[in-house]
Design goal:
Order of helices and strands: HHHHHHHHHHH
CATH topology of the largest domain: MetI-like fold
Distance between the termini: 10 Å
Structural class: mainly alpha
CATH architecture of the largest domain: Orthogonal Bundle
CATH superfamily of the largest domain: MetI-like
Helix content: over 70%
Number of domains: 2
Largest sheet: none
Strand content: under 5%
Number of strands: 0
């Protein structure tokens, strides 16, 4: 049984990968055919060949790597601070009902505000330098981590907690051995959503006030009427976002290994 399952899993992954690339390949093929037959306005939608030429140019001169690196460093700074603050506060709010009551109205009012709406405020308060961009990324990462952590803490099995109390286990042991392991899947969901939002926020911030970064690259391409460079910036955002999410999913599978094994058992 084990050998057949182990063979089936790689086969399923290969099949899933092949299926997942069919649609992108078809889109690129249609794009190429449409460009050759002048179906598209090439001042807006360049040909794949022009994008490839522009991509080779920005790779050779190192400008694309420079913009990506700057944006990535900004995201890491803001995300680490925002995620840490969101998880810690989420644990406290989830554990203590009085703290939950104190924050419920504030969270309800502030949560619907899009992070991008805070850009003018951050620029006024912190200037157009790195601080305002990191503050925006912080907000983008903070809310998903906070809300998902609160949800995860509150969904811990109350029966297990009661049994632990009857057995004389201390609050720290209950938190470490029951509540946090139960909340980890929800916390990781928040972390994954947070890094995606953080990446979106840095691009938005760089479009408005920056002289370097992927967002700046897109705005520069628009102003200089370079659609091929603009598409490279947009595609770079998507690919990097995908790689970040895959890395977070890899960490989740490694850290929360019992969820992965549970899913495998349920599927057999």
């Amino acid at each position: 049984m084990k050998s057949s399952n182990s063979k089936r899993i790689p086969d399923n992954r290969i099949t899933a990968f092949i299926i997942s690339i069919i649609l992108p390949v078809l889109i690129i093929a249609l794009w190429a055919v449409g460009s050759d037959n002048n179906w598209f306005n090439q001042s807006i939608i360049p040909t794949p060949h022009k994008i490839n030429l522009q991509f080779s140019k920005v790779i050779e001169d190192g400008s694309l790597l420079k913009h990506i690196t700057v944006s990535f460093v900004r995201v890491i700074y803001g995300y680490v601070i925002g995620a840490l603050a969101g998880v810690v506060l989420g644990i406290l709010v989830g554990l203590f009902s009085k703290l939950d009551q104190a924050f419920i109205l504030l969270i309800g009012v502030l949560r619907p505000i899009p992070p991008i709406a805070c850009i003018p405020l951050f620029i006024l308060a912190l200037g157009i330098g790195e601080d305002s961009k990191i503050a925006l990324i912080f907000i983008g990462a903070f809310w998903p981590c906070l809300l998902n952590t609160i949800t995860g803490i509150k969904q811990a099995d109350s029966k297990l907690i009661e049994v632990a109390k009857v057995l004389g286990k201390g609050k720290f042991i209950i938190l470490k051995d029951i509540i946090l392991p139960s909340a980890l899947p929800s916390i990781f969901t928040g972390l994954r959503l947070g890094i995606s939002t953080a990446w979106s926020c840095v691009v938005a911030a760089e479009m408005i006030a920056s002289s370097v970064g992927v967002g700046y690259l897109i705005m520069y391409a628009r102003e200089m009427s370079k659609p091929a460079l603009l598409f490279i910036g947009i595609i770079a955002i998507g690919i990097i976002g995908l790689l970040i999410d895959l890395f977070m999913q890899f960490l989740q599978d490694k850290i929360i290994f019992w969820e992965l094994s549970r899913g495998g058992k349920n599927g057999t």
